[in-house]
Amino acid sequence: MAVLDIARMGNPILRRRAAEVPDPRAPEIRRLVSDMLETMEYAGGIGLAAPQVHVPLRVVVFSVEAERAIEEAAEEGPPSEPCGPDETDPMADGGVPLTVLINPEIEVLDDTVSPGLESCLSVPGLAGEVPRASAIRYRGHALDGSLVERAARGFHARVVQHEVDHLDGILYPQRMTDLSRLTFTSELERAHRHVPAEV
Ligand code: NI
Question: Across-strand partners of 129?
Answer without folding.
Answer: 117
